[in-house]
Amino acid sequence: MPTRHPSDALLLDYAAGSLSEGWGLAVATHLALCPACRSRVLAAEAVGGAMIDAIEPAPVAEDALAATLARIDADPDPAPRSAAPVRREASIFPEPLRSYIENGPGLAWRKLGPSAHTIIIPTGDRATTARLLRIPAGAAMPVHSHRGLELTLVLQGAFHDEGGTYARGDIEEADEEVEHQPIASPGEDCICLAVTDAPLKFRGVARLLQPFLGI
Amino acid sequence: METDTAAPKRDGAQIDPAALSRLLHAVATERDRAAFAELFRHFSPRLKSYLLRLGGTAAGAEELVQETMVAVWRKADRYDPAKASASTWIFTIARNLRIDAYRRERHPEIEADDPVLSPDPVEAPDASLGREQDAGRLAEALARLSDGEQALLRMSFFDDLSHSVIAGRLGLPLGTVKSRIRLAFGKLRGALAQPTDDL
Fold this sequence. Notes:
The complex is a heterodimer.
Chain A: H1 8-16, H2 21-33, H3 35-54, H4 64-74, H5 97-103, E1 110-112, E2 116-121, E3 129-135, E4 144-146, E5 150-156, E6 158-161, E7 164-167, E8 171-174, E9 179-180, E10 183-184, E11 190-196, E12 200-202, H6 205-213
Antiparallel strand pairs in A: 1-2, 2-3, 3-11, 4-9, 4-12, 5-8, 5-11, 6-7, 6-10
Chain B: H1 17-30, H2 33-53, H3 58-75, H4 86-103, H5 135-144, H6 147-158, H7 163-170, H8 174-193
């Protein structure tokens, strides 16, 4: 089970619905791998339920119930959701991430710097960029800090940086105060989902390469 | 008392989570229209108020209330009272629909039957925090939060503001807002972790 979790603040944003889609994708994919955080989100959603209970009601139109029943009668029991696909082959990508990857038009790994690879994952969220990163076992990413927030969720392998070690399901929340150099652990390539809302700030040679890296 | 509060009014409308849950169960298993009408009378004015708070027009809020309640009818068989109260489950449906309608975005979610998902432990000690029988204690714990903590929750749930935006609005460092949220949730979790026999 994961040992590095999102903050309460991030889970509150997710439960309240104020988190934009890119961040939500990282949080929800962590939830698929972390029963403990699923129960934390249920508790935060219960706060939403309690606030709905407590809200001052606003009267609805007199015919609202009749109109709703008419909509139900127009299509009373739509076809049940298609059963879960029977594909049972091992995937490192849980839902909701898997559908984002499979539904993306022709997503393919492209080179990022000398040894890493990346795929940009399309979302409806213009404020963030979501990408997969594949870092060869043992390789180091350039030292960088952040102009905004970076969420990194490990899906395969592991990496370590100044903040500790992150393995499958672990999520790192790095903000403007964090400067780090992620290094993939030996053994297997490290594959992460990384979401950012501003370009990273690189130091040294990598800074000169940034226009070409596009990250 | 001003109506703009996160805490339930102790007088006024009586909310019986178990009764609401039974109504939802009747909709799921018997397609019971009278039960649905009762749920509609209870929830539709609250959902409209919620959607208006989030900046919808009156007509837009009416439309989303109807969409939410149609979804309640259609998905009632997926409601699990072991995980959430009826109010909480219906809140999440309205939340997802308003994100789609107002922001043109999705709310990414897990799929319970995904073979890659890590299953819940058999006896999850915390898995019950949102259950219907805890709704009363949660409401009381919310009412005991400080004014500042309640304001944070209102900004989050009713103003569509993320914690980083809230920090900017309040002119506070991000870390301060994060630790206030952590403290508030610590209090709520603490209240819910109390044994039930003190009621």
